[in-house]
Amino acid sequence: MNSLKSMDEITIDPMRFRRALGNFATGVTIMTAQNDQGEKVGVTANSFNSVSLDPALILWSIDKNSSSFPVFEQASHFAVNILSGSQIELSNKFSRRNIDKYEGTSYQTGAGQAPILDHCSAVFECERHQIIEGGDHWIIIGKVVRFRDEGRSPLVYHQGAYSGVIPHPLLQLKETVEAEDIGEMHQGHLYSNVCYLMSRAFKFYQTDYIPKQLVTGFRTSEARLLLVLGSGTASNKADLPRDIAMPMREVEQAASILQKDGLLIESDGFFKLTEKGKKTAHYLFDIADSHQNEVFEKYSDEQKDIFITMLRDFAGVA
Ligand SMILES: Cc1cc2nc3c(=O)[nH]c(=O)nc-3n(C[C@H](O)[C@H](O)[C@H](O)COP(=O)(O)O)c2cc1C
Predict the structure, then answer these.
(1) Is residue 145 part of a domain?
(2) Is 177 a domain residue?
(3) Pocket residue to mutate for ligand 1, from 31, 47, 81, 95, most atoms within 8 A of Cβ
(4) One GO MF term, please (predicted)?
(5) Domain containing 280: what range?
(6) What is the pLDDT of residues 295-306, one digit of tens each?
(7) CATH code: domain of residue 219
């Protein structure tokens, strides 16, 4: 009893708490609704979860400060739009305040006039079932009345950065065994499929590289910000979420952590690396370069150049 009481008394720093929660990888949704007056709202949310199969219930939580909440409270229905891997820009757009989020957004209307966004992985149309108070958030429970399952590869959110889904290395091992089982012809087929080979090569590359980067103590989001600022590809704040594949609030949180460590300063509305920041970015580039050199050790410079030219071409970068 006593120990529980003393645990309650520990003050939790909300920023560090949020950062620790970021270790739980989630998908990304945009919750949408429309009231009888035709006011449409939409909020990027990763607090979505399933609750019950029968009846079909889901939940998510919305910040009490969200200007969209009154419409979710008034509307009879809302829609859960599960974002696919290609919808980072939409996620960023619906996480911004004081803009018309529907301008230039393609959608249809579903149950209770809730907007249904195009090109999602899945959509759950819900009747508002219950709203419960949960600290500084409202927990909204919806009863699913209709859903569509497009099965597109989902957008993933982890440690404040967007990611995609790739098979785990152990599954790849299993795949190899299965490939052998189904005979040489199909194995040959699989092993000359560029999509399969690129995803497998990327996974192996990353499996060895990420631990080397994490040893520096930086989160993915902080390391990405340092690398992008260090490479000088972004020249204003608005370009950063696209270049780093992170929402603006995470860019800002990573920036404030780097700022506290004396690695960057904010000047003229943009971030600039300090001398210490430049050295750190240089160090991160060294880790990336030495890993790349290790991987290319057994190939000639000519082979490496051809490979890089082809990758640049596939990636659509000059
Ligand atoms: C990846 C991601 C996940 C988010 N998850 C939530 C969430 O679960 N609940 C929430 O209230 N806000 C969440 N937000 C922030 C809201 O999207 C943002 O505060 C909201 O759109 C503000 O606009 P509004 O005031 O127009 O409602 C998230 C933002 C991002 C980028």
Answers:
(1) yes
(2) no
(3) 95
(4) riboflavin reductase (NADPH) activity
(5) 187-313
(6) 999 999 999 999
(7) 1.10.10.10
Residue in 56, 62, 63 with CA at minimum distance from that of residue 127: 56
The answer as to whether 168 is a domain residue is no
Task: Name the residue of 19, 30, 31, 43 whose CB sits within 8 Å of the most ligand 1 atoms, as the mutation to test its pocket.
Answer: 43
**Closest ligand 1 atom, CA of 249?**
31
State pLDDT tens for residues 9-66: 679 999 889 989 999 999 999 999 999 999 999 999 999 999 999 999 999 999 999 9
Question: Structurally, how many domains does the chain consist of?
Answer: 2
| Tokens encoding 97 | 């305040």
pTM of the entire predicted model: 0.72
* CA nearest neighbour of 82 among 133, 36, 126: 126
- The residue nearest atom 10 of ligand 1, judged by CA position, is 62
- Tell me the H-state helices in 215-245: 220-231, 240-244
The yes-or-no verdict on residue 167 having pLDDT over 70 is: no
Query: Quick one: tokens of 164?
Result: 């995609």
CA atoms of 63 and 86, how far apart (whole Å): 26
- The last residue of one of the domains, among 110, 134, 156, is 156
User: Are residue 29 and residue 152 in the same domain, yes or no?
Assistant: yes
Asked whether residue 215 is assigned to any structural domain, the reply reads: yes
Residue with tokens 């419409």: 71
Please write the tens of the pLDDT for every residue from 88-129: 989 999 999 999 999 999 999 999 999 999 999 999 999 999
Phi-psi region of 269 (alpha: psi -120 to 50; beta: other; left: phi over 0): left
